[in-house]
TrEMBL record:
Source organism of this protein record: Tectimicrobiota bacterium
Phylogenetic lineage: Bacteria, Pseudomonadati, Nitrospinota/Tectimicrobiota group, Candidatus Tectimicrobiota
Keyword Hydrolase: yes
InterPro entries from the UniProt entry: AB_hydrolase_fold, Dienelactn_hydro, Dienelactone_hydrolase-like
Keyword Transmembrane helix: no
GO MF terms held by the record: hydrolase activity
The Dienelactone hydrolase domain, residue ranges: 27-250
Name listed for the protein in its UniProt record: Dienelactone hydrolase family protein
Length: 252
């Protein structure tokens, strides 16, 4: 769908909200939605390992600006605030987050989006870094998504299992329930290009609908993160256009 077919932009409302996740626990979240007449697709935006930082909220507002209702849940809400500058703590928290809990919490996010009066009922999901992995995980364990975008999600292969992540995402691909867009950097170590190739092989084997883009050159992990040295403008701009085109195609 071209940008000409998107609803006319008339401003947005962005606010902190909460919704019920696993076991009825309430999660903090950030919701950004377009104002004006019409109906809009919903997008679940899953944060990186650093949690619900301002950069993620900016991305939610970017989606609202382009005619999507975006919600980004704080998947670490139960553990309380974290220090994004303490990398060891960030990694420990990410690795201890239960896949089962994530799936249940994201189902709650679907319900929250569909409760917005202007939502058209179609839901997409996108995540970066650990959020990319969680996006594919969720897309393989729900029937409530219409499109998913994985931005350099790592830890998808069997030799990276933990008690919190007992099954490799790559082994769940036969259950993928919606089209998948994947955006990756050639210099990334997790997922390395070899891991991306294995994931693509499984998608082909399972006859799933997908689009992958591997950005070459000096492009590694975190190239969308314009607040970090890993940011790369050219692939980030191209990636955003691919994301909007993909969601326009499958959600409107």
């Amino acid at each position: 769908m071209s940008t000409q077919n998107r609803p006319a932009y008339e401003g947005m409302l962005a606010e902190s909200v909460n919704f019920a996740g696993q076991n009825g626990d309430y999660l903090d979240a950030y919701l950004a939605r377009p104002l004006g007449a019409g109906s809009y697709p919903g997008v679940i935006l899953i944060h990186e390992a650093f949690g619900l930082v301002e950069h993620t909220k900016e991305q939610a507002r970017k989606f609202a600006h382009h005619g999507f209702i975006a919600i980004t849940p704080d998947l670490y809400h139960r553990e309380g605030p974290e220090n994004p500058d303490d990398l060891q703590s960030v990694i420990q928290r990410m690795q201890s987050l239960s896949d089962a809990q994530v799936i249940a919490d994201l189902e709650g996010a679907v319900t929250a989006l569909r409760s917005v009066a202007t939502c058209n009922g179609k839901i997409g999901c996108i995540g970066h870094c650990s959020g990319g992995r969680h996006t594919v995980l969720f897309a393989c364990n729900t029937k409530n998504l219409h499109a998913a975008v994985d931005c350099y999600g790592g830890r998808v292969i069997p030799d990276q299992l933990t008690p919190a992540m007992p099954k490799a995402v790559i082994d769940m691909i036969p259950n993928l329930s919606c089209p998948l867009l994947g955006l990756f950097g050639e210099l990334d170590a997790n997922p390395a290009p070899a891991h991306v190739a294995r994931l693509e092989e499984e998608l082909k084997k399972a006859n799933k609908e997908y689009e992958f883009k591997m950005y070459t050159g000096d492009v590694g992990h975190g190239f969308f993160g314009d607040y970090r040295p890993s940011y790369r403008q050219e692939p980030a701009v191209d990636g955003w256009q691919r994301i909007f085109n993909f969601f326009d195609k499958h959600l409107r």
